[in-house]
């Protein structure tokens, strides 16, 4: 019972909440001064003198004017940032992170307006009690001796002198404790209200989902880049290093060609890796590799050094293809040749690249081996499908009468 009554008095969070509420009281001061200076003259211009001087009319008009000016001010973007930051620092961890971020839509701005008005109204009430209760508490200790209490200017409350007024200090102390509880409850209420008024709106949730989808798409793109570039190079390096090791003493010339293929593949891998790492660094864009179908001869040369025989049939305006189409088509060809080397060995690959007026066709075929039949369906095929889908194209891959065939169609 004792801790329940005096618990909030000893908590630091209570006084942080108190500070935030008193800030709300100070925020209303400039609007009040403006209303005092502007509202009476305007009322005399618009209304008869008797009506314009009625206390009720003046009071209601000033309250409306104060709230209207405060509401208009709340739509300034910086107001939400300042209000939200102060709320997160002083009201506690229950205030959402979005409170200190700029409003990005009309719904968030309107909720900020509501929060600002609630803050200054509740803050003004708490501020008034904060100003008055401590004065009443101090005066209560001398009231039994002087017979006067609650002195405000010339006004005061007459009380009996002596023990008959001994209850006054007790009542003042209880009032002070009640004020602390009131502050604590107001702080808890504002913290909960902040989750509604300063939390994410449906538009914010939608933007967050869109951002996550974009990040996931970017991660998938980086995974494709690493698989198709560095993965290709590692496949060539692994196979050629193994072959060179087996024939190094018997066929030095073949071993030399294998080492040349390893060197070329490693050089390309370094360039591609620099590009991918540059995408991961926010401060360094990295080097953009210009691997398109225009670089097909270099790729075919590397594969031939690796022992793959490639028969090509290229037709149409391949150099004039859009950059995005040419880049993705290059990666598809690279993946097809790498898969042939990795899964079927040093076989003959037939490659057809046909650039038409409205579609680009890429087809690669190689003989199936026992190892190849047991190894299909990995990450590379999924990557090729993703690349083709992004460009609104189609791709088919699978066995066809003892041949593994990949055929992609990409609209131009």
UniProtKB/TrEMBL annotation:
Keywords: ATP-binding, Kinase, Membrane, Nucleotide-binding, Phosphoprotein, Transferase, Transmembrane, Transmembrane helix, Two-component regulatory system. Residues 218-283 form the Signal transduction histidine kinase subgroup 3 dimerisation and phosphoacceptor domain. This is histidine kinase. Its EC number is 2.7.13.3. One of its GO terms (molecular function) is protein dimerization activity. The keyword Nuclease does not apply. GO terms for cellular component: membrane. The chain crosses the membrane at residues 20-43, 55-79, 116-146, 166-190. InterPro entries: HATPase_C_sf (IPR036890), Sensor_HK_TwoCompSys (IPR050482), Sig_transdc_His_kin_sub3_dim/P (IPR011712). PANTHER family: NITRATE/NITRITE SENSOR PROTEIN NARX-RELATED, NITRATE_NITRITE SENSOR PROTEIN NARQ. It comes from the Bacteria. The keyword Metal-binding does not apply. It catalyses: ATP + protein L-histidine = ADP + protein N-phospho-L-histidine.
